[in-house]
């Protein structure tokens, strides 16, 4: 900072002038008493008085000139005195600038440079606490350039990201909240495909929206869930089993991960590929049991499997995803199911057994079945029938049937082929395929469901040891997974005859009977006839 040399020189001139006139007055009166001084003044000659007057006048002129000069000096100093600011960073002296705006401009320029260098990341310039102290000086020149350069060298920066944690485990840091939300929604859509397919499906699928805490937000669909009457499903709950934490965090720019990488890390987790070669005696169900996985995994990973047909040497992909996050969904599912028309049989001993005549056509009824289905990552965990309501009552069909017995012909009325039975699997779609019969466990003796002729006895792919009975009236029944046979091909059997022993052959998940009813070659739902 420059000093005040011109101002100091003028001060010295002024001070010497004042001191000169003081000395002159002191010299005239030096060594005199008050009276003597008066006498001196009285006796002073005329020329002395004139001299004194002349000197006094000169002094006045000098004094006036000095005053005028001082005023000019003051104006000069004021016009050349400039304001400046001392700059401090976290209490440390940095330097001087002409105005705080110069520091603000530096900060703005540095911030803009950070944004350009990291366009997709939220960067923060760390400037510390900058304070200013105002000052001013004669011909003051602040060291702005050096001060700004020193400040710039002390600035640091960091990125602000959003970290995603699952049960306290850090999965990754993404650039912002929107990216984190998008990842979690994608995870929900992957493991709860009903949410993603809602717009494409002809079946009603209503969804609830994701919120930051991983829970669902209520919607009109939630209220409609209990009122669903048409075939379809309503997703009433969507949540993450694990605790999901999403929060802002300061990190280095290099720690910000791509959203796609974090998504893959969540859905793939610690998955390791698993392959298995089919051995003798294997079946889909028993392989699933062996590896403690759902048969659905086998079907999904090996779409080439048809009708449960696998052979020794086939390689199966049994890989099960072990994602970091588990999506749990609860659905209300409504299905409409037909009710077979009851049949009132009027006997006619003039007609042969198996012959019949419809006197009054029956009409099937309709019932509404409501299920509560709970899934984890798309796999069914529980399925519970919560309500069954008859919508349309069936109308009884009146049939006249002959009672004249002719061996080998069916009566047209079927009985359950197992005593003390329990149904373990029903007729219908399972994992994208038709389960064309029903499965029973119970007493090991297998009985003929109706009279007929044994058409087939032997091994079949999938059902193992199998018996097929032709009832000579358009119907056939199939009995699968048997342990042994009590009949041979061509035998005529009566309804209720023992035909075999329950077993675990073929693609079986345990000892049981697989039972089918076919009408003119087409599988029927056995429960409509039993």
From TrEMBL:
<feature type="domain" description="G5">
    <location>
        <begin position="325"/>
        <end position="405"/>
    </location>
</feature>
<dbReference type="Pfam" id="PF07501">
    <property type="entry name" value="G5"/>
</dbReference>
<dbReference type="GO" id="GO:0004222">
    <property type="term" value="F:metalloendopeptidase activity"/>
</dbReference>
<dbReference type="InterPro" id="IPR016047">
    <property type="entry name" value="M23ase_b-sheet_dom"/>
</dbReference>
<dbReference type="InterPro" id="IPR036779">
    <property type="entry name" value="LysM_dom_sf"/>
</dbReference>
<dbReference type="InterPro" id="IPR011055">
    <property type="entry name" value="Dup_hybrid_motif"/>
</dbReference>
<feature type="domain" description="LysM">
    <location>
        <begin position="274"/>
        <end position="318"/>
    </location>
</feature>
<dbReference type="Pfam" id="PF01476">
    <property type="entry name" value="LysM"/>
</dbReference>
<feature type="transmembrane region" description="Helical">
    <location>
        <begin position="53"/>
        <end position="73"/>
    </location>
</feature>
<dbReference type="Pfam" id="PF01551">
    <property type="entry name" value="Peptidase_M23"/>
</dbReference>
<keyword id="KW-0812">Transmembrane</keyword>
<dbReference type="InterPro" id="IPR018392">
    <property type="entry name" value="LysM"/>
</dbReference>
<dbReference type="InterPro" id="IPR050570">
    <property type="entry name" value="Cell_wall_metabolism_enzyme"/>
</dbReference>
<protein>
    <submittedName>
        <fullName>LysM peptidoglycan-binding domain-containing protein</fullName>
    </submittedName>
</protein>
<keyword id="KW-0472">Membrane</keyword>
<keyword id="KW-0732">Signal</keyword>
<keyword id="KW-1133">Transmembrane helix</keyword>
<dbReference type="InterPro" id="IPR011098">
    <property type="entry name" value="G5_dom"/>
</dbReference>
